[in-house]
Design brief:
- The chain is mostly helical.
- It has one domain: Tetracycline Repressor, domain 2 (Orthogonal Bundle), CATH 1.10.357.10.
- It is 69% helix and 0% strand.
- It contains eleven helices and no strands.
- The relative contact order is 0.14.
């Protein structure tokens, strides 16, 4: 039996976005057809096309929803004043690799076929870069990072290498966790003061991790017809 309000226009639209997002991320964009989304939701293609005239419009809305979801998941940690600026930098860093490990590389590669959507994605990248740059400066102010680091150059190299990992299979023998750990040791530990290195070492030794990004939580199975 459908839940109260489940068939409202807004709810149906959200269910389509959440289902499509999960399929795009796990299978890539090209391999997901409107028929696949309709089948997964047990609804007609007409219902989907009434709300999204084409795949690009749906992909655009999915991208916005994904960024909102990740922001909501990370907000409690970021607002907890007990975490230091370096704790937050590590958390943001770790979240990226955690998400990266669960997204099909074809998603990032095929996104380039949709220039308007790619432009929005690039804007989000710029926002993330500025946010991470601000946290890095805070780490300098708090004595975790060296003061003689050119963060503009560092972030350019870092973003280039992460994009390479997200679109190629050059290192299939390593997990995203192993690659993330290597990046932390190579990039972050290298710019730390003694105080910052102590935090990094504790972080690496610690088995306590934040709650992982899980696609099943993305939609909370709400798009599954009861």
């Amino acid at each position: 039996m459908a839940k109260k309000g489940e068939n409202s226009a807004g709810d149906v639209r959200l269910r389509i976005i959440e289902c499509a997002s999960k399929l795009f991320l796990t299978r890539g964009i090209k391999d997901v057809k409107m028929d696949d989304i309709a089948k997964e939701l047990s609804m007609s293609k007409r219902t989907i096309y009434e709300r999204f005239p084409d795949k690009q419009e749906l992909l655009f809305e999915c991208l916005k929803r994904i960024h909102i979801f990740i922001a909501e998941k990370s907000r409690p940690y970021l607002r907890d004043s007990s975490h230091s600026s370096l704790d937050v930098a590590l958390y943001l860093y770790d979240i990226y690799f955690n998400v990266l490990s669960r997204v099909n590389k074809k998603f990032f590669i095929e996104l380039a076929r949709y220039p308007e959507v790619q432009q929005v994605s690039n804007k989000h990248k710029d926002i993330r870069r500025r946010r991470f740059e601000a946290w890095m400066q805070k780490c300098v102010d708090d004595g975790f990072f060296r003061k003689d680091i050119n963060f503009e150059i560092l972030l350019y190299i870092l973003q280039r290498d992460i994009e390479l990992l997200s679109t190629t299979d050059n290192f299939p023998q390593y997990t995203a966790h192993e690659l993330g750990r290597a990046f932390i040791l190579f990039y972050l530990r290298g710019i730390c003061t003694d105080k910052g290195q102590d935090v990094i070492e504790e972080y690496i030794r610690s088995k306590e991790k934040y709650e992982e990004f899980k696609f099943e939580e993305f939609s909370e199975n709400r798009y599954k017809k009861k």
